[in-house]
């Protein structure tokens, strides 16, 4: 049984196979591809067929099921080989901690008896998926309650249904706030170079009939200066134990500009995005991707031939610039190490 596609557009599971909406070609084409092996799943994560920290985690959980199914069917020392599959899967992308979180949540089941194991793993992966949707809905409600009616919001990247099990983190808050008539306007940075804002966030919001204005990333400070924004609302790929927040490159610039203009900055992320093993943002691995992403648009070269590039795809916003971290376990105001730790008590 597949989940309703409007509830979970990015990731679908029918109990045996995985279906991913190819986010590289949205919004021009809406195409699902079927995945049968964990190698294919890891490649899809690396290539950003599926992207966004919680969606990567959900996908990885299903990847573990596919890996176990194949390894068990081949027999031999399948537990050792499966372990190698999991290491490979965990290395598919470096920054989003939800990838590791989901694999570690699946791992204890692998110690159980062989009979019925694949079914138990499938049940657990579906639970991870459903819990992520539920967490997004809870965070949507919690985050929205901080937004006064008539507010303008700005978001960066895509932290929506496409980036999660469904509903979205930052876009979950925006969806809730829109339903509660709190929003005057929604703005989205285009989010160069991969254009998650113009391709994905604008696609999602307009499908839900939520009007959205796109702007060039460099225009956001000027937008704030016009008094059009009351909240910047973003997701995260990894939050350190002290509340430093890794998210899409450009988030740090938005946070600095928000503080300068007296605008509030909200980070919306499930607790599966909090990495308590990492003390501070400096220790979060930041993915660098090929400069080709900067040089080309839709496969056409746009940069001067001899230019070289620098393409870190995440940055870290220090906790001191964050007003709220909204999780499914509660909201942390002015985050500190102690307040983050209290979420887990
Ligand atoms: O490179 P991406 O598209 O995977 O980056 C995604 C983001 O930075 C999102 O803001 C983050 O994962 C939060 S998604 C709910």
Description:
With 345 residues, this protein is an alpha/beta fold. It has two domains: 11-135, Four Helix Bundle (Hemerythrin (Met), subunit A) (Up-down Bundle); 140-342, Rossmann fold (3-Layer(aba) Sandwich). It is 37% helix and 17% strand. The chain is built from eleven helices and 16 strands. The chain has a seven-stranded mixed beta sheet, with helices on both faces. The protein has a four-stranded mixed beta sheet with strand order 11-8-9-14, with helices on one face. The longest helix has 28 residues, at 117-144. It is globular. The two termini are 36 Å apart. The model has no long low-confidence stretch (mean pLDDT 97). Bound molecules: 5-S-methyl-1-O-phosphono-5-thio-D-ribulose. 5-S-methyl-1-O-phosphono-5-thio-D-ribulose binds next to helix 2 and strand 9. Residues 51-54, 96, 157, 159, 163-164, 169, 196, 235-237, 247-248, 313 line the site of 5-S-methyl-1-O-phosphono-5-thio-D-ribulose (MRU).
Topology, pairings included?
Elements: E1 11-13, E2 18-21, E3 32-35, H1 38-46, H2 53-74, H3 78-90, H4 98-106, H5 117-144, E4 151-155, H6 170-179, E5 183-189, H7 196-207, E6 213-215, H8 220-225, E7 231-234, E8 238-240, E9 245-248, H9 251-260, E10 264-268, E11 274-275, H10 292-295, E12 296-297, E13 300-301, E14 314-317, E15 324-327, E16 330-333, H11 337-342
Parallel strand pairs: 4-5, 4-7, 5-6, 7-10, 8-11, 10-15
Antiparallel strand pairs: 1-2, 2-3, 8-9, 9-14, 12-13, 15-16
The site of 5-S-methyl-1-O-phosphono-5-thio-D-ribulose has 17 residues, from helix 2 and strand 9.
